[in-house]
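Protocol step 6 of 9: fold each sequence in the batch and record its structure tokens directly after the sequence line. For illustration, a two-sequence batch is reproduced in full.

Sequence one:
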Amino acid sequence: YVYLSCWGKCYDTKCPLTTTPLSGSTCSNILKRKTYSLSDNKQLVLVKRHMDTFKVNNIFTCGNENCVPYSKVCNLIDDCGDGTDEVNCTNHFVCNTDTNSRVSISYIPISSVCDGQFDCLDLSDESSCCHRQLINGVSLKSSSWLIGTLSIVFNGIILVRNTYRMKSVKTSSALSDKVLITLISVGDFLVGLYLFFLASIDVYFGNSFCLKEFEWLVSSHCSALGVVSTVGSQISLFSMTILSITRFYRISRRLSIPGPVKKKSCVMVAFIVSFIVGVSIMLSVIPLMPSFEETFNNALYLP
């Protein structure tokens, strides 16, 4: 890169070599014995002896008076110690990472910028070109707001009405149906909450979601929202399944007369409710347990 750019063979690049005043302490990190010579352009340059030959102008002088060979200039590594061997290079992108209140600088190839993969720990290599949001597309955003709001409002109304009318139920079959329908409303209400909060968080992040994507995915808020969504969908699924089974059972016994609400039927309904809610919560929480992390969670690879 150094030779091609300084010879003008690379398009849209500049020579990274600069003229640095020399002193007696220059290049003391690699040259204990050195000779200064006056070159054709009347500037002091270093002459390095190697295997009975002299190599001239193959040493880059750093800003801190250290020296490195040309092969270590613009190689994506701070060889000088002060970063001056990488300052004037156009073949890399600078990543700034805050670690324990200290800013550490690292370099990645310019070809790794905007390639769809995060190479910098601060994600800055994709921040200027990533337009991905938490919810992409106007239709999905609108649907999330609409379905979430309507689900919260109408299922909330159903929950209040069914709870109020639960005391007037006369038969055990009507009690079980009413409770299961109420559970379905609970599940749909939770899914509505999930959509509503997801749309709200999408508005909060906006176009900065790319920079905060990993932070969001590993946050407790994301985990809690996932639990709400899973619990709601599982409650609705189990309730509809059990409701369909009980109704099919009653249809197959058309001659039977539903009995009145008794303590036994109340205990059975309470058991079904506990089973549905308990299994739904268990299925939602298990993926968050450390022992199942490798099974359910996506891993993050940091080079």
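Sequence two, same batch, same settings:
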Amino acid sequence: MFEGVLPPNINMFATTAASADESSYACYYDDVRQTYLGDVYSVNWMEDSDAENLKSETLETQFEITKNETNTSHVQQYGDMTISKLSVSGFQGEKDTEPKHVPEVPFDAVPSRDVPLHILQKKLHKLNSNSLEARELQKSLFKLNRNRVYLDDKVNEIVRRSVKTDEQVTYAKTQRKSLQNLDCYDTVARYFSKECFSLSQNNYAMSKMYIFVNLCEMGVKPKAMKKAMDRVCTHPSIYGIY
């Protein structure tokens, strides 16, 4: 989100749960609510806020603690690093209560983008496999995986139509290039979301956007990618591919 995009001179400071080429991780699955209650980075940040004196702790110190505690992804910081020298209380407020230390419990961490998949699997694990509810969940799990394959196939076809060689196809699908050509990517991402798979309605599609970063950094023109999308994305609007 911020790598190569957020400049260091506009009075903004940001931290992220993961680096640009990896997923964050959800944690604390709740059997009653049947969902994950947090992610590893956010939980570590909130627990640090409970444990520390926010008047004396700086954003930099908080970042380093959270980074060291988060072992599922690589926590990053971007922007104006002078802001990181300020106290946390200036942003989160001053607390009157004494620091609190929460008990350690298993994170049970899973990649954030696979949360819908893991929730279905956990629900299935607790059921009799021959029950009606289990069969319905198995159907939902099959649909989820099949829809992902459908989106994968569409993206692969867009790549094949956008470049000239098999080597370029492989490169586009396997590399994790840093985004430099923001104008190209913004144009292509918006077109993909409008004509192929809405990014706000198909969360799984977000996991494929690095491919379009690679294509832009390879010098493939937006016009070529848009033309490929016009040929490939002839399906009606699709929503709910998670």
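Proceed to step 7 once all outputs are recorded. Observation for sequence two: The beta strands are 13-16, 25-30, 35-39, 76-79, 110-111.
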